[in-house]
């Protein structure tokens, strides 16, 4: 998407720099001043709203901090030990794991399938792309509302139960049935509906970067159209896109909050880490010490998983 | 840049096969496509159906495809309902989305330009300090950010909703990459005419980069409008609720009717549907630019 050719062919740079210096009469100092005029406001904001919170939170995580952000009682690593042995926190990590096992592969396969379908139609392609992309306009709150009140509301007038009723199946209380865990169906489908279009767009962009000559070569070499071409041409060529989709998707799943909060609320059977951290640090008791420790543990987990994924898939090595 | 897609469409593997098998495959693909279209559109249909229904129509035991009559008065009912601060919430969302987007683009574009074009000894270090923030998962920072914002006394205020979201390291990174590829000759010409960095940036670089700004603006606006966790954390009293927080509050409350809530949904997605209708090209560019970091 960028035009990197210009940046590399850059013999004019030193001359330009001297020219600037001459006109500005201040030389390097003038450049430094202008640099800070352009970059300074952003850097100050980043210090206050990115770096300061992290540092403050790190400090708080070593203190007992109920309802205060300026605590006095140092407790060492106790908050971390508490969180790592907290049954609720650990089960929230378990909830996330189940969620990721469903959502990451499903999103990957279905988004790729949609991209292939849309890319192959010869008429009304823009229409199909728009339809699948349109849910991106909706928030998780909006989608949760439709899912909870109109599709999976568990009573007779819900769409899901109406459809099942045509086949003689009894009403199902989708969001509150723990055994079998029907609540995963609304939780997973709502995210699929919202995010498939986004990842489909990424895959379509990837597909359109594949050179047509590769397909012609495969045809000449006698590759069977369909699976063989897909397996040996399309999929390897989509490697960079695929890795990006997997990583973005997994990180987003770790941070799931909106649909869980709005569909099932703070219930112990389906509570991902962020909902739990929200409830302990900003609920009736503002336990910012444990909340900070939990947030930092989660951040470290996400960073490790991201790095591992990069290592495994060799992100950056395989440009397409 | 995206060449018109009709010409770049890859030769389809199905195009090679003329066999019956190929034709069956084609039909199956069309069926799959049409089923997907229906599934994706059903929720939108439900929004409209419920928003224009009476409560009796919605909760009737027998499903009806269309309401018995279109109840347009649901709009006025929604905005006249004193228990639901819907107008205020829409106003808050508009302010947050517009100022948030404008502020974020202004700050990130200037920072990106400075990093890309103004020679400065420590520019590399500053750049790495900005990129480092991309490593921190965004949603995990809501507790730390809440601590800072509450210390500033900004809880339940528009300031608290907007200002902490303005400094996006990712946006600054994207702008820097983009400006590195901006044609230098254009800037040179202006500089010869005596313009400084400020003049070059505002009179040459920005006007020639509007598609890029539009792409990022469209994505940022949608993100701000739909954002939920941060407004939920900050909006502790109803005067500072955004539309998302207001709708979420009434999902479980008994104080609102389903048809009213769905009318609220319809109103809340209207601005975004308009953006999708008129700016989809920029939006898709924005998604592909920001989705894959390279």
Automatic annotation (TrEMBL), chain A:
Signal peptide: none annotated. The chain crosses the membrane at residues 32-56, 93-119, 126-147, 183-205, 238-257, 288-308. The keyword rRNA-binding does not apply. Residues 1-14 have a biased composition (Low complexity). Residues 1-23 are annotated as: Disordered. It is found in: Cell membrane. PROSITE patterns: ABC_TM1. GO terms for biological process: transmembrane transport. It is a multi-pass membrane protein. GO terms for cellular component: plasma membrane. Pfam families: BPD_transp_1. Keywords: Cell membrane, Membrane, Transmembrane, Transmembrane helix, Transport. InterPro entries: ABC_transporter_permease, MetI-like, MetI-like_sf. Residues 93-309 form the ABC transmembrane type-1 domain. Its main location: membrane. Belongs to the binding-protein-dependent transport system permease family. This is Sugar ABC transporter permease. It comes from Kribbella soli. The lineage of its organism: Bacteria, Bacillati, Actinomycetota, Actinomycetes, Propionibacteriales.
Automatic annotation (TrEMBL), chain B:
The keyword Transport applies. GO terms for biological process: transmembrane transport. One of its GO terms (cellular component) is plasma membrane. The chain crosses the membrane at residues 26-48, 89-114, 126-149, 161-179, 200-222, 261-279. Residues 90-280 form the ABC transmembrane type-1 domain. It holds the Pfam family BPD_transp_1. It is a multi-pass membrane protein. It comes from the Bacteria. The keyword Chloroplast does not apply. Keywords: Cell membrane, Membrane, Transmembrane, Transmembrane helix, Transport. Belongs to the binding-protein-dependent transport system permease family. This is Carbohydrate ABC transporter permease. It comes from Kribbella soli.
């Amino acid at each position: 998407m960028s035009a990197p050719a210009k940046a590399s062919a850059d013999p004019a740079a030193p001359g330009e720099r001297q020219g600037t210096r001459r006109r500005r009469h201040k030389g390097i100092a003038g450049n430094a001043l202008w640099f800070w005029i352009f970059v300074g406001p952003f850097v100050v904001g980043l210090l206050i709203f990115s770096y300061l919170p992290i540092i403050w939170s790190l400090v708080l995580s070593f203190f007992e901090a109920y309802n205060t952000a300026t605590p006095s009682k140092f407790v060492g690593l106790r908050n971390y030990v508490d969180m790592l042995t907290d049954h609720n926190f650990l089960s929230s990590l378990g909830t996330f794991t189940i969620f990721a096992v469903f959502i990451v592969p499903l999103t990957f396969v279905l988004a790729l399938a949609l991209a292939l379908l849309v890319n192959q139609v010869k008429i009304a392609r823009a229409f199909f792309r728009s339809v699948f992309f349109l849910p991106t306009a909706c928030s998780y709150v909006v989608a949760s509302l439709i899912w909870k009140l109109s599709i999976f509301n568990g009573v007779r007038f819900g769409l899901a139960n109406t459809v099942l009723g045509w086949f003689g199946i009894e009403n199902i209380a989708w969001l509150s049935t723990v055994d079998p865990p029907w609540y995963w169906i609304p939780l997973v489908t709502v995210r699929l509906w919202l995010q498939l279009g986004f990842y489909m767009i990424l895959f379509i962009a990837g597909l359109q970067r594949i050179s047509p000559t590769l397909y012609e070569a495969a045809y000449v070499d006698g590759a069977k159209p369909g699976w063989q071409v897909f397996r040996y041409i399309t999929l390897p060529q989509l490697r960079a896109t695929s890795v990006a989709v997997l990583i973005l998707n997994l990180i987003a799943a770790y941070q799931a909050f909106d649909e869980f909060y709005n569909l099932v609320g703070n219930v112990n059977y389906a509570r991902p880490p962020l909902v739990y951290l929200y409830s302990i640090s900003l609920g009736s008791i503002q336990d910012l010490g444990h909340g900070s420790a939990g947030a930092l543990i989660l951040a470290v987990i996400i960073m490790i998983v991201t790095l591992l994924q990069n290592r495994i898939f060799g992100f950056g090595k395989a440009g397409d | 840049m995206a060449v018109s897609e009709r010409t770049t469409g890859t030769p389809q593997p199905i195009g090679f096969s003329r066999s019956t098998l190929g034709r069956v495959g084609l039909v199956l693909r069309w069926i799959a496509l049409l089923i997907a279209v229906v599934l994706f559109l059903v929720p939108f249909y439900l929004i409209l159906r419920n928003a224009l229904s009476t409560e009796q129509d919605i909760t009737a035991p027998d499903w009806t495809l269309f309401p018995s009559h279109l109840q347009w008065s649901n709009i006025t009912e929604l905005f006249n309902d004193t228990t639901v601060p819907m107008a205020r919430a829409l106003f808050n969302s508009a302010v947050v989305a517009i100022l948030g987007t404008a502020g974020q683009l202004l700050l990130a574009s200037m920072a990106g330009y400075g990093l890309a074009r103004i020679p400065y000894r420590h520019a590399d270090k500053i750049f790495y300090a900005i990129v480092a923030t991309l490593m921190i998962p965004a949603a995990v920072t809501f507790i730390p950010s809440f601590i800072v914002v509450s210390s500033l006394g900004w809880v339940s205020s528009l300031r608290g909703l907007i200002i902490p979201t303005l400094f996006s390291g990712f946006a600054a990174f994207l702008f820097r990459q983009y400006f590195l590829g901006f044609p230098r000759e254009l800037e040179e010409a202006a500089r010869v005419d005596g313009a400084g960095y400020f003049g070059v940036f505002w009179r040459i670089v920005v006007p020639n980069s509007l598609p890029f700004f539009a792409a990022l603006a469209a994505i940022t606006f949608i993100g701000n409008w739909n954002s939920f966790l941060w407004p939920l954390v900050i909006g502790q009293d109803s005067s500072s609720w955004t539309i998302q927080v207001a709708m979420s509050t009434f999902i479980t409350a008994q104080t609102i009717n389903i048809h009213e809530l769905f009318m609220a949904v319809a109103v809340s997605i209207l601005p975004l549907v308009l953006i999708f209708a008129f700016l989809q090209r920029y939006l898709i560019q924005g998604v592909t630019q920001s989705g894959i970091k390279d």
